[in-house]
Amino acid sequence: MAELHFDCRDIFRVGRYGFDIKKILVHLFGLIFGYLIYELLVYASLFIVGGSAVKQFWDTYAFLPVCPLVDYAFEDITIGAMWLGTFVLFVLFFLTSTMVSKITIEQLRGDHFFSMKASWGFVQNRWKSVFGTLVGLVAILVILALIPTFVGLLGKIPTVGRFILMFASVLTPFAFFLGLLIVYLLVGLGVSLFFAPSVVAAADSDAFETAYQHLAMLWNQSWRVLIYEALLFGVKVICTPIWIIFCLIGFALAMLPIHLLIPTDIQHIMWQADRWLGGSITKLAALPYMEYFKVFDIGSEPANLPITLTIAAIFMTFSLLFITGLVIAYLFSIASSGNTLIYTILRRRVDGANLLEVEDEAEVSEPVAPEAPSSEDTSNPDTAGTEEKVE
User: Fold this and answer.
1) Among 212, 287, 304, 388, which is most buried by a count of CB atoms within 10 Å?
2) Could you please report the per-residue DSSP string of 275-327?
3) End-to-end CA distance of the chain
């Protein structure tokens, strides 16, 4: 079992807890699966639009995922496909975050060999608790918001509406407290977006208990939630750029000998990969100090790109996407591991429960064997007489 201080000092361990191959791979698999679904949905919508929509999108973005929040001149069906793909990514993130949180809490409990398969089995049993918490809080908010809305609709009734508003104005103080409750639940919903996977994984709770734990943390330890999340954000800001630098150096060292031997071919490959990634390599090369990474030099547009270099550019494109996924996966791993650790600390602060101490079910459920009779019992004359009568 990990030795924790159960205070802010433990947050600085999150960079190490997040840098775990199992946790990074779990989030990476979720990102890859979500990316494929996103691209399939977007291109399927473009095929439905027809005409030159597919060609125009391919010439501009190709394999680059496009954020639906940006104002693009796409058809409504394409925008809808982007939002649907974003929702799929959101769902997959919560599922993979629950898996990583389960691996983290078992690691803190001393089980360093808890597998990804076991964490996936846990998610299959508890995914309803994760999303049920969010849906439940949203449903309560909608119901509470319908009360003043209903009063406003009654006020629109001709003639009678003004009298209804007059009598309803008596309940203004109660409406004020209702508004405070809505604000509290909104903040609780925001907290659940951070902690729902961690609470379910660490406490093995259902949707109702998970929602209660969120509101209890917010009510009893709100200032610690803010401070610990700020510290976790600082860990992300420090650790993620370090990981990016290591990935860039690793990629540059792997490609530098090839770039020195056949610079023209590598430039052509990078030019084609940059075209398929929507100019991302050009933007990357424009960052400070990136001129030292010669492998990102795309050169000029080739007159005629051979089929062999085109195939190589395809592998280069997906390799760069894979490296980008590794960076994002590490960031997500820090977030999932950090929120699990924060919830473990806050739970100890709220009700004194140590989630790292798990009672051994095997010892509890093991039946107690009856004691064998001693030699003194067999020599007891009363017992002997009883045995003779039985015989």
Assistant:
1) 212
2) HHTTTHHHHHHTSTTGGG-GGG---S--SS--HHHHHHHHHHHHHHHHHHHHH
3) 57
Q: Which of 80, 89, 71 is nearest to 46 (CA)?
A: 80
Rounded to whole angstroms, the Cα distance separating 100 from 30 reads 11
**Which DSSP symbol is given to 11?**
G
The C-alpha atoms of residue 218 and residue 353 are separated, in whole angstroms, by 17
Q: State residue 83's pLDDT score.
A: 93
Q: Which distant-in-sequence residues (6+ apart) come within 8 Å of 243 by Cβ?
A: 19, 327, 330
* Tens digits of residue pLDDT in 359-371: 544 443 444 455 5
Q: What is the pLDDT of residues 162-190, one digit of tens each?
A: 877 787 777 788 888 888 999 999 999 99
Long-range CB contacts (< 8 A, 24+ apart) of 215-218?
Answer: 215/184, 215/188, 216/350, 216/351, 217/191, 217/343, 217/346, 217/347, 217/350, 218/184, 218/187, 218/188, 218/191
CA distances from 227 to 7, 346, 352 (A): 11, 12, 20
DSSP summary character for residue 9: G
Of the CA atoms within 13 Å of residue 177, those in its CB half-sphere come to 3
